[in-house]
Design a protein that fits this description.
By secondary structure, the protein is mainly alpha-helical. The chain is built from twelve helices and no strands. The protein has one domain (2-280). The protein has helices at 2-18, 24-46, 55-76, 81-88, 91-102, 109-131, 135-160, 165-187, 197-220, 223-229, 232-245, 251-285. α3 (55-76) runs antiparallel to α7 (135-160) and α5 (91-102) runs parallel beside α12.
Amino acid sequence: MLLGGLAFATMGMFAKLGAAHFTSVELVFYRSVVGTLSLGLLARTRGWTIATPHWRLHLTRGIFGVISLGLYFYCIGRLPLATAVTLNYTSPLFLALFTTVLLREAFHAPLVVALCVSFAGVMLLLQPAMQEDRTFEVLLGLASGMLAAGAYLNVKKLGATGEPSWRVVFYFTLLSTCLAAIGMALTGAHALRWDNVWIVAGIGVSATVGQFAMTRAYHSGHALVVGALSYSTVVFSALLALAVWREIPGIGGWAGMGLIVVGGLLSLRAGRRRTAKVSAQSDTLRPIGTPPPQTGRSPTDTGRSDNGT
């Protein structure tokens, strides 16, 4: 997962470099097309079936994800890299809220603590942003996290149907590529030249490497540990921003990012504990000799694609 965190941070670095040459729509296209081609080739090589009966869920997940990704790249170009990444990583908190409201799950103390900690972190991040007149960009960063949570909620629904995670990722990258291509056709696209083609190549390759590394981590590692290590993207982003742009957040910025990360980790832990508790209660109430329900999904198969989707 550390490799995945580094790869996604590198993707953010290339996206920030690319903001001087391309629009956010173009960056979404170049980020997605490599993944689409890679997964399509892998599916063909291994004989996987691409056809799906769950295209409505894929469409909803893709729309949420592609808008989130576009906002994420927009914010990367206008905010310090680590700040933009941290705001996108508020998605677990919004996901906890969505599952509580939409799935009518009761609030419990650990989740309330996680939300309060992260809210305090957002407030700390807003202070320097307001002083620099970047409140709008910060709000868009939070919107990218909220929309990513909407995408993950649909990923959960797809996982419950038994849809394999690679197919979820494939249709997301395919839809992102198609929608971004339409946007480029309507608004125009910048020419690829020798001085910028390496940037779009870097975005596509790093995103694909991060995707495969994260998928492997979720399949072979402990889900809570992997989820915690995914926040290494924030740390790697801060180090890359320091090395490339000499971006050094102030004390309030560091404190805000730290609180958001802690809140995200607490929400992950609270969610895992709640899931385990519900599962234990179900096992207690199930008649002796009755097998547990099958979901068609591995316990560690989260279906999560990457940050911002």
